[in-house]
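The authors assume throughout that readers already know how a fold can be written as discrete tokens. For illustration, here is how one protein appears when written out as sequence plus structure tokens.
>
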Amino acid sequence: MKIGKYFLVIFLILFLYLVAWPIPIDPVAWTPPSAPDLKGEYAINDYLASSNIIHVNESIGPEDVDIDENGLLYGGFLDGKIIRFTPEGKNLGVFANTKGRPLGLDFDNSGNLIIADALKGLLSIDINGNIKTLATEIDGVPLNFTDDVDVGPDGMIYFSDASEKFNVHNYRGDLWEHRPHGKLISYDPSTEKLTLLLDNLYFANGVAVSENGEFLLFNETYDYSISKYWLQGPKAGTRERIFTNTPGFPDGISTGSNGVFWIAMFTPRNAEADALAPKPFLRKIVYRLPLFIQPAPVRHGFILGIDSNGNVIYNLQDPSPNSFSPITSVEEENGVLYLGSLNYPGFANIKRPQ
């Protein structure tokens, strides 16, 4: 009898924990579109299996990479280090350390490395490695999760703040809550003025300005969508969704050659997560579970190349368990794609498909 009582008490404690323990998310019900099958234009292939992986011993997670005018490669790592490499992958040492979590990287027209740092805000690093803070808030609201950045041909800086509620240490919270906490922002380096272009975005992530500066594309990771925001012309200041129902979680986006924009897919869509979307109470329970029980991303290298209207031009994959993944950024330079990752101990490169 005593053993039975103990089990009953334990069961009640676990039950109360799963249904009533305080958590930071307030989920809303939503119904995602049915995930497209990995067939046809999304057919599984092994193009990325031949990627050249450059392992880095002293740190992990070069979430984004960029190349300077001399062809040197820079990666922003988990411990705040910006490490510099030759195009072949030779480690040239630490260029700077933000002491935060650098995510997006892009060089401006003066050779400064502009950083979207999830913990420190929008930063600029000169050629000598000196760090300058450009912005930590907008309209009195702190930049909570500065995510990706791209510099337009006119020098204007565009960046995303993924979530004003959840930071980089709890990005899953934004997924499970599914409320629009993200922003798209511009920074004018000549006036130091910040402008809120869009808010109420579902985890604003990658940002890429077109070569002529007419528009930019940005990803909403947890809405499975890619949008165009017009910067010039009669549509200036408006947005249009050009790609809805992506086959994976869109992460970084960059401007490539010949009108192609490269989309890094963090992982293919998760059927369990989609099934839980209309059920906020169950999502609360799942959030309280240990991470190893929750729906999790799979190892699957995945990149799409699209045109400015959202049409798929390239589909590059590697579904093997040893693939370079998750891929969070793609940067094209001289016919080579350089790949970054949120938590892989290194980066990769592969020849651009023709």
Residues 2-20 form the longest helix (19 residues). The chain has a mean pLDDT of 95. DSSP finds four helices and 26 strands in the chain. The first strand starts at residue 52 and ends at 55.
